[in-house]
Amino acid sequence: MEPRIEMLSETLLIGKKAIMSFSDNKTVELWRSFSPRLREIKNPAGNELYSVDIYNDTHFFNHFDPAKEFEKWAAIAVKNFDSVPEEMDKLILPKGSYAVFPYRGKPSDAQKALQYIYGIWLPGSEYDMDDRPYFALMGEKYKGEHPDSEEEFWVPITNK
């Protein structure tokens, strides 16, 4: 699994967020509270959905603790922040380089892919994880828990 390296331009998101850990995972509840309200967002910049993780430090996975908390977002890119629905928040993904890993399979089975990315690829690459949000980008080929579902894992990187 080799990534492509991409420069992301600043991206504006509107969505809902929750504080969680891997041992107290609230992802399903977060998306259930966000998805039915997508039509309330009046200025989408596309159809892709963003599952964003904001970790407290770039070494989050080096000493992995499943009880360590992070911020998770269910969001969509927008053209501007002129209209933010009630009980939703705005987030700016800053411009920067990302290693983009294509993933095919059930999201619940992604642990092996993520272990490879953070445990093998990243330490062996010419990059370090940057202090910007990580996100999964879910487009037209995303089918939820279907084994043929496709998404991309965007890992923020900086040169070592």
Tally of distinct domains: 1
Query: Helix and strand succession?
Result: EEHEEEEHEEE
For the residues shown, what is the average pLDDT?
93
In CATH's first tier, which class applies?
Alpha Beta
Please state roughly what percent of the residues sit in beta strands, choosing from under 5%, 5-15%, 15-25%, 25-35%, 35-45% or over 45%. 35-45%
Number of separate helices: 2
Could you tell me the radius of gyration in angstroms? 15 Å
Low-confidence stretches: none
CATH topology heading: Multidrug-efflux Transporter 1 Regulator Bmrr, Chain A
- Overall number of strands: 9
* Structural class determined from secondary elements: mainly beta
User: Helical amount among residues, as a percent range?
Assistant: 10-25%
Q: What's the CATH H-level homologous superfamily?
A: Regulatory factor, effector binding domain
Largest sheet: 9 strands, antiparallel
Features of the shown structure:
160 residues, mainly beta, Multidrug-efflux Transporter 1 Regulator Bmrr, Chain A, nine-stranded antiparallel beta sheet, 14% helix
Molecular structure report:
It is a single chain. The chain starts with a strand and ends with a strand. The protein has two helices and nine strands. The chain is 14% helix and 42% strand.
